[in-house]
Structure formats: C-alpha cells, structure tokens
Write a structure and sequence with these properties.
about 325 residues, mainly alpha, Rossmann fold, two-stranded parallel sheet, about 55% helix, about 5% strand, binds tryptophan
Length: about 325
C-alpha cells in the first residue's frame, strides 16, 4: 500500500479552504492508503508563537482534524514534536542540503521580503524539516497545494541525493497528490485569490452562523450584469465557486440562470450561500467543541498516533544511520 502524508502548521484555525481543499479528501483516502497526518508544531515555531498559545494551537488543529472525520484508528494522526526521530533525520538531512539551494527557494525569498527582521535559520531550513516529515515515513504522496511545490522539489532532491550519496534505495521521491482530480481552489470572500489564514478573507470551521452570515453578506461582488449572458467578474465567479461546494446543484443552476438573464439579486445569492455554508459548518463546529473539551479522548488519540508514527520513523532513521555508517559499540 502506498503512503500518503500531510501536515498542517498549528497557526490558527482551519478554514473552508483547508476543509474542501484537504481535510474532506483526507477522510476519503484513509482506507486506500497508508495515511500519516500530523500537526506541524515545530514548523510553527519560525514565527515565535507566544508560549501561552502554543499548546492550545496544537489542540485546535487536532480537534479540527478529528471533527472533519479523520479516524485515528485508520490513519496515524500525530503531533510532529512527539516524534523526535523526525528532528533527528532533520539533522542528518541538513548535512546534504546546500545553503545556496535553500536560499534560492521561492518560498524562502518571499518570507525574507515579508519579514526581513526575522530571517532565522529555521526559516532557511524549513524545507529540510518538511523533507524530514515526508521521508521519515518514506511517503510516496503528499497532498498539498501549488504553494508547497518548491518544498516538495527539495524533498525529492534530498531523497535522491541521500540515496546516491550512500548507494541505497531508501527514500522514494515524494510527489504532490491531487486525489485523482484537479485540486479545488477555494476562493476567499475579498474578490480575488484563494482563502487563506493571513489574507483575512476566510470562513473558519469554528465560525458560528451569525459570523458566517455577516462575512458572506460582506463578500465583494460587482454592480451586477447589465447584458444577458455576460461573463462574470472574478468576485462574482468566486461566490459561485463557493456555492458549488456547499449548495444543491439545482439551486446553483437557478442562480446561474438568474445571472444569465440579469434578474439576479446578489443579496439573495449571498443569503442562500450563507445558509448553505452554515449547514455545512454547523455540525463540524459542534464536533470541534465537544472534541476540544475531551482531554481524555485527545490524549488517547495523540498517544496512539505518536506510537504509530514513531514506529515508522524510527525504522527509517535506523536505515538512514546504517547507510551513513553509524554502528553500535
Ligand atoms: N509547509 C506546510 C504548509 O505550510 C506544512 C507542512 C509541514 C507539511 N510539513 C509538511 C505539508 C509535510 C505536507 C508534508 O502548508
């Protein structure tokens, strides 16, 4: 069985983009692949979260993974820092990662531009840590968006370089996994681009009905179609894209027809969208609440996940150490 692995950094809540782009699909592949899903708490340290928030942030993502339907019996659901073998592999991989190639990574250059005062070494080697996440379980597939492609490329380079340097076939080259269809790009409510944490344009899985409705009613649109069958502007097309994710196809067709014959009222469109998003989010939000407060359950889940992940990562680490030449006395 092939291995699929993905991680989410513990920086804030998951939004509809995470849900429709990732989580919902993770749930569907739990039986078909050997799945590893984890909370990348070490990666979140690049931005120096406050110690008072650090644990709660991990707990939030864990609860949201579970509320979305991940089954900790079927997959390995774990916290990155609970698996020290990942950090140990990271040390080893750092020795074959070149500063030049890390500096040239587009995601690193973006971070430097956005945050010139916090260019720490962890940021430079962020892709090496991510490669360690992936290679620790010798994963074949990594379901991530286009923004993570440069990191996956580094994981492949390091896998290849390790194998060649030490004359082994230890690490398979990991590739992006798209669930057999084009990845859905979930747009934000600000008229352009995709839903993101830092963009402030998202609907979160913990948002209540009132918050969701307020956000949707404020979504950017345009002044409305003036000619029949005119092309939609990006903000309006985005509303329809969201609607296709949560609304009944007949309802979507009805609004598309209304757009085409210029009878559409954006207020009605948004009201419908808000109601259907609420219907999708409400049960997940309720589950998040009860899971988040069930410490006994969470500690059991985390222990199970840790044991599975450590078993897999320590087997890989041993083979890597062997290849490098470590021997026990
Ligand atoms: N860098 C990823 C992100 O920001 C999170 C991540 C860390 C990850 N390690 C990973 C994703 C390993 C996939 C595989 O979204």
């Amino acid at each position: 069985m092939e291995t699929v692995l993905s991680g989410i950094r513990s920086t804030g809540h998951m939004h509809l983009g995470n849900y429709f782009g990732a989580l919902r699909n993770f749930v569907k592949i739990q039986d078909t692949y050997n799945c590893f899903f984890f909370i990348a708490d070490l990666h979140s340290l690049t931005t120096h979260p406050h110690p008072d928030d650090f644990h709660a942030n991990v707990k939030i993502i864990l609860s949201e993974y579970l509320a979305a339907g991940l089954d900790p019996e079927k997959c390995a659901l774990y916290v990155q820092s609970d698996v020290p073998e990942i950090s140990e592999l990271y040390v080893l991989l750092n020795m074959i990662a070149y500063v030049g190639e890390l500096e040239r990574t587009t995601t690193f250059k973006d971070k430097v531009r956005l945050n010139p005062n916090n260019v720490n070494a962890g940021l430079l080697t962020y892709p090496v840590l991510m490669a360690s996440d992936i290679l620790s379980h010798r994963a074949n597939w990594v379901p991530v968006g286009k923004d993570q492609e440069p990191h996956l490329e580094i994981a492949r380079v390091l896998a290849r370089r390790f194998n060649n340097t030490y004359g082994v076939e230890l690490f398979p080259e990991p590739y992006a996994f798209n669930f057999g269809h084009d990845l859905v790009k979930v747009p934000g409510l600000d008229g352009s681009g995709k839903m993101g944490k830092s963009e402030g344009n998202g609907i979160y899985l913990i948002d209540d009905d009132k918050t969701i409705t307020r956000k949707v009613m404020h979504a950017v649109t345009d002044s409305g179609p003036t000619e029949p069958d005119s092309e939609m502007s990006e903000p309006v097309a985005n509303i329809f894209t969201l609607m296709k994710l949560v609304s009944d196809p007949d309802i979507v067709r009805q609004f598309e027809a209304a757009y085409a014959d210029c009878s559409i009222r954006y207020g009605d469109l948004k009201k419908q969208l808000a109601a259907d998003i609420c219907k999708t989010v409400a049960p997940i939000r309720e589950r998040i609440g009860s899971i988040y407060n069930d410490d006994a359950y969470l500690s059991k889940v985390v222990a199970t996940g840790r044991d599975k992940a450590r078993a897999s990562a320590s087997a890989t680490l041993k083979l890597a150490q062997q290849a490098i030449g470590f021997r026990t006395f």
